[in-house]
Amino acid sequence: MENEKDVLEVRNLKINFNTYAGTVQAIRDVSFDLRKGETLAIVGESGSGKTVTTRSIMGLNSPNAVIDSGTIMFKGQDLLKKSRKQMDQIRGRDIAEIFQDPMTSLDPTMKIGKQIAEPLIIHKGMKREKAYAQALEMMKLVGIENAEQRINNYPHQFSGGMRQRIVIAIALVNYPEILIADEPTTALDVTIQAQILDLMKELQAKTNTSIIFITHDLGVVAGMADRVAVMYAGKIVEYGTVDEIFYNPKHPYTWGLLNSMPTMDTGGTELPSIPGTPPDLLDPPVGDAFAARNKYALKIDTEKQPPFFKVSDTHYAATWLLDKRAPKVTPPEPIIERQKHYAELVHQEIDKSKGNHVEEQEEQL
Amino acid sequence: MAKYLGKRIFYIILTLFIVSTITFFLMKLMPGTPLTNQAKLTPTQIHQIYKQYGLDKPVWQQYLVYLGGIIHGNFGTSFQFSNQPVSYLISSRLGPSLIIGGQGMVLGVLAGLVVGAVGAIKANTWVDTSATIISILFISIPSFVLAVLLQYYLGLKLRLFPIADWGGFMYTVLPTLALAASPLAETARFMRTEMVDVLSSDYIELAKAKGLNKVGIIYHHALRNSLIPVVTIIGPLAVNIMTGSMVVENIFSIPGIGEQFVKSILTNDYPTIMGLTIVYSAMLCVVLLITDIVYGLIDPRIRINK
Ligand SMILES: Nc1ncnc2c1ncn2[C@@H]1O[C@H](COP(=O)(O)OP(=O)(O)OP(=O)(O)O)[C@@H](O)[C@H]1O
Ligand SMILES: [Mg+2]
């Protein structure tokens, strides 16, 4: 592992799908790290490759998927080189996943106690009683009331929010290193959504699990993630800390995403969505895949793919606008507002660290 | 549960009442008479015979007499076998029909489940294709053709089983096979569709994410969920077996009610036809009741209450 704190390192991942229409280049050179205990959000429009990326971490891509290149390093081993049997042992023990729709993710004919106990029985070879006792603990931990009785209930006896809690209990029952959450709240209504997100944060604090949180709703990301990776057409186009992505975004695609994000102010008003549609991944464009939809596109965007430009130690963006030779462009108004806010944030940080410094000195004195 | 059962049994009785009424009046409307040698009889003789069977009374009176009889388990006397009560005729022939029908059903459904499940697990491979071809064949070949083929090859040529007649397990093999083919094919097709559906569902995805291996996924999650809907086709399959048995019993000369039914129709033996119709309806009602109860027992989402 390059970085000690990393639990997962994805490098140069390229995944194609063989279809009748041709080869779909779904993931086109994706690299990222996941640190211990952090939440990494992957955001992007539908079809950008978020699910395919995480499915390959789980070793559960569809049969027509071809891993063209890349490595996924976990505990010093490349997951892409593991056999199916080896992956069976890692899934549900070291890496777990929760899905979008809690109404369909649970087996309708199995008592939930058994469903929660299952990963313990599979991976730890636990006896029934012990596994059920632990399942019960887990149910209490995820906030299911009357757990003693409800352990014998079937999924249809629970509401959507409760079911997602059960799914979370299943995922965390073995205290995995990594939890993949693929749009875990999209199917829930807003108040329940907030409760589930709170629960995930609370459990993460207890278990120190690293979370890969997939969503196309940037609004959810703000309160949830430590870092954000923005995906477009099978590539990561920008990544950085939450503050960097929200208040100092550099990629025009990130601008577009942020502008179409509902906030307190916009309330119920119509949001500007990014015009146009993502490119056809059967035949992706030569240059920057976003160029066709980008009003700030430069000539070079249609000719050459932009490399990552460093914005800070933690913040990178793949857009030619960051090249020294590029003309200065003015981002959309709301983005400028965000950048002002960012400047304030940075100042506060500096003041705070100065303040701390002063205090330390005083103590020494 | 008791209340539910009571309600269902009431409906069964109502159904049987309607069935017997409809059959009764349909019989009255049928052309032809039960007297095969009518031409040779004098009007007085005919009148005498009609009187003996109560056919001289007005239709509504005949109907009441008939209903009254049924309530006491009396379906009248067969026209064909002059002294035999229909109820005796039926009860003495019910055994062989239940045996081959039951065997055909169990064999067909069980084999169908296996073929369907294997087809789904190996979806879009040659295994699946062969399973589909077998199903289509078994559905499209009428049971009487299959019966004759079985009779010819396994009975006459290879001499593995008796060609016809009744008398022990070996005699049941060929008719059972002939009857089982169609339920097998139907069950297999249904099971395959259900299981392909289930295998692509989110909870199977979650089971994979838990680290369950393929066998575990099928055994713990896929089978039960695909099996439940299959219960709903048991009723139609029973109908399938009943109609099939009428032909198959004739081909193998089995002394069952199916064979009797055909004979009765050919001889205009009204009381026997009506009696058998009611018996068939009753059997179907019972099968449907049992499948509904079983469905409620194995599917936790459906609870039979009140
Ligand atoms: N089995 C497959 N065969 C062919 N193409 C596929 C397959 N699975 C995914 N793709 C393609 O890969 C691309 C990425 O899909 P993916 O599901 O990862 O998108 P996503 O970012 O998760 O979108 P969403 O927000 O809608 O979930 C899409 O263009 C999709 O059509
Ligand atoms: Mg997705």
UniProtKB/TrEMBL annotation, chain A:
Domain ABC transporter residue range list: 10-258
Keyword hit for Cell membrane: yes
Membrane disposition: Peripheral membrane protein
PROSITE patterns according to UniProt: ABC_TRANSPORTER_1, ABC_TRANSPORTER_2
Keyword Nucleotide-binding: yes
Main subcellular location: membrane
SUPFAM superfamilies documented for this protein: P-loop containing nucleoside triphosphate hydrolases
Any single Gene Ontology cellular-component annotation: plasma membrane
Keywords carried by this UniProt record: ATP-binding, Cell membrane, Membrane, Nucleotide-binding, Transport
Intracellular or extracellular location(s): Cell membrane
UniProt cross-references to CDD domains, sorted A to Z: ABC_NikE_OppD_transporters
Gene Ontology BP, a term: peptide transport
GO MF annotations in UniProt: ATP binding; ATP hydrolysis activity
NCBIfam families linked to this entry: oligo_HPY
Assigned protein family: Belongs to the ABC transporter superfamily.
Protein name (database record): ABC transporter ATP-binding protein
Gene label: oppD_1
TrEMBL record, chain B:
CDD domains per UniProt: TM_PBP2
Pfam assignment, any one: BPD_transp_1_N
Gene Ontology CC annotations of this record: plasma membrane
Domain ABC transmembrane type-1 residue range list: 94-295
Main location: membrane
GO biological process: transmembrane transport
Membrane topology: Multi-pass membrane protein
Keyword Transport attached: yes
Keywords assigned by UniProt, alphabetized: Cell membrane, Membrane, Transmembrane, Transmembrane helix, Transport
Transmembrane segments: 9-27, 98-121, 133-154, 166-185, 227-252, 272-298
SUPFAM superfamilies tied to this protein: MetI-like
InterPro entries: BPD_transp_1_N, MetI-like, MetI-like_sf
Protein name: Peptide ABC transporter permease
Lineage, top ranks: Bacteria, Bacillati, Bacillota, Bacilli, Lactobacillales
Name of the coding gene: oppB_1
